[in-house]
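Is this the right way to post structure tokens for a design question? Let me know if I should format differently. Anyway, here goes:
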């Protein structure tokens, strides 16, 4: 009998749009789209923060996320991490600043972004590929590696009010294979700038970097009974946000109770 061989799944190819983005950022064409330039950051200015647009959370964060720092939003599915991210993006675009979202596994729902108030004209969406269940660890590693390269190029281009790196659906094993120096390099790149850099994941990653770490956890699902048939309709999530690490003393351990109206997989 002929010998049967098992073919390894093929990883998706890098999208041509990604190649164009990388080339454009290298020669700084993106600068021409800016209406204003962000001023230089005073490293001693403790008020250099960017509000998330969620009052209960901003109150616990001392106003919002610190500029010139790498911060983290940590939480599993249904933790509210996507809701907090989209509110932060919306608040940033409302201030007239540009936002770059490095979407490592192509998970953004544009409808939810618009509903949260995101101005898509001010959003640079760098899409990865959905590799979490395709091709095994090799494809996951490749997708994350390409996303980190895109993050590096965007940070080097500068002039973004917010750069968000969404690894929320990345397998924990793939994240553990990243070099421990990855996030220290990112912190060095953003330090001294007016950019807020936020890493979104389901696992603590940037423990030794600056900024703050915000852990989210769902406290329950909100729903209402519909008038017809007595069916329950999903209305949102009750979320607890806890500050695990902060550059300003007194913020660590702070807890905020939030309610979201996003889809239950957020």
């Amino acid at each position: 009998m002929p010998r049967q061989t098992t073919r390894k799944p093929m990883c998706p190819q890098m999208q041509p749009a990604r190649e164009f983005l990388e080339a454009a950022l290298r020669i700084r064409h993106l600068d021409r789209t800016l209406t204003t330039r962000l001023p230089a950051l005073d490293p001693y200015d403790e008020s250099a923060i960017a509000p998330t647009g969620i009052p209960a959370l901003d109150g616990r964060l001392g106003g919002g996320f610190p500029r010139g720092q790498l911060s983290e939003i940590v939480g599993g599915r249904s933790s509210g991490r996507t809701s907090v991210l989209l509110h932060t993006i919306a608040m940033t675009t409302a201030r007239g600043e540009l936002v770059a979202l490095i979407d490592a596994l192509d998970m953004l729902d544009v409808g939810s972004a618009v509903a949260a108030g995101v101005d898509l004209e001010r959003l640079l969406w760098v899409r990865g590929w959905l590799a979490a269940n395709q091709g095994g660890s090799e494809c996951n590693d490749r997708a994350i590696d390409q996303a980190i390269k895109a993050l590096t190029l965007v940070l080097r281009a500068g002039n973004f009010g917010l750069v968000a790196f969404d690894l929320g659906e990345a397998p924990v094993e793939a994240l553990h294979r990243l070099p421990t120096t990855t996030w220290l390099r990112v912190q060095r790149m953003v330090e001294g700038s007016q950019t807020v850099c936020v890493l979104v994941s389901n696992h603590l990653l940037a423990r030794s970097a600056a900024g703050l770490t915000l852990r989210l956890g769902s406290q329950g699902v909100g729903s209402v009974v519909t008038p017809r048939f007595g069916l329950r309709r999903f209305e949102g999530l009750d979320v607890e946000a806890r500050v695990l690490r902060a550059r300003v003393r007194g913020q660590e351990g702070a807890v905020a109770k939030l309610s979201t109206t996003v889809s239950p997989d957020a």
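Format looks fine. Someone answered above. Worth noting: The domain at 54-260 is CATH 3.40.50.300 (Rossmann fold). The radius of gyration is 19 Å.
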